[in-house]
Structures are given as structure tokens and as C-alpha cells.
Amino acid sequence: MHKVSTISDFFIAFSHECGDPLSNLKLQKLLYYAQAWHLAIFDEPLFGDQIEAWVHGPVVVPEYHRFKGWAWQPIRDNPQLPEIDQRTVEHLNEVMEVYGAKNAYELELLTHQEDPWKNARGGIPIDQSSNTVVSHEDMKKFYRARMNG
Predict the structure, then answer these.
(1) Nearest by Cα to 1 from 85, 94, 58
(2) What DSSP assignment string belongs to 34-72?
(3) Cβ count within 10 A of residue 3
């Protein structure tokens, strides 16, 4: 299992190399999809931090606070690509291939249509605050079904 900050650093460094820096909002969605697909494919979490179902989609709270000073602007921190195992690099590259070209708002709308976020929200209004945790089991079940169908 990795530190979530390592996964964030990977996504930020990757985005800088591609010339398309991430906002905190987009980073949060990439962390969510990286975790969800890791659970579905490998049956284990990628990182230990929980993901909460906030108004604007899934959020890893410590990483949100780490980058909240950037507000809606691109994160200008420029970390080096972290040293991580090849399986994880391939997984994160695939997440970027599938989700990286979408903007933050598109990713937010996508998460709002999917069961793990909706289940965690429990039917509360879309604009009501919540810190309910998105279940690993819900993520694994939902994305494994997409993988197999």
C-alpha cells in the first residue's frame, strides 16, 4: 500500500510533464478513480486514506487540505515522479489515459452518476455537505462489474 501523497505526487508530476497541470478538484477525482479501480482489479486498496462523498464529488481529505491553497487554480507544486513499483505505475498511467483528458467538472459529473458516490450520499440533496465515507466495497463492486461487463 502506498501513501496517498505519493500517488498525488505521481499525478501532479505526470500532469506537469504533459503540460496540463491539475487543479485540486481534478486531483481528487483521479485519486478516487485510482483507488476504485485498484480495488476492483487487485482486490486491495492503493492507499489507506478514506474517501469522502463531498458536494463536488469524492475527496481524500488530507490531500484536499494539502492543496487547498491553490483553490480552483492549477497546482503549481512540481514534485519529481516518485519511485514506485511497476505495477502501480502501469495502473496510474492507465487511470491517466482513461480519465486524465477529462476536465475537473466532467469528472465531477461522472462521479455523481456512479453508485459509490450516490450510495455514500444516501439521497441527500446534491448541494448539501457530507463527510460520509465512500465504501471500499461499493467501489470494488461497482467497478468490478464495469470491468466484467
Answers:
(1) 85
(2) HHHHHHHHHSS-SBSS--EEETTEEE-HHHHHHHGGGTT
(3) 13
Has residue 148 got a pLDDT over 90? no
Cell output for 109: 459529473
**Spatial separation of the C-alpha atoms in residues 33 and 91, rounded to whole Å:** 11
For the chain, the domains span: 4-148
Which residue do the cell numbers 469522502 mark?
52
Cell numbers 488530507: residue: 62
Q: What is the pLDDT of residues 130-144, one digit of tens each?
A: 999 999 999 999 999
Under 8 Å between Cβ of 26 and 71: no
The 3-state DSSP class for residue 1 equals coil
Half-sphere exposure of 4 (CA within 13 A, CB side): 23
User: What is the total residue count of the chain?
Assistant: 149
Prediction pTM value: 0.96
- Determine the 3-state secondary structure of 74 from DSSP: strand
Euclidean distance between CA atoms 83 and 85, whole angstroms: 7
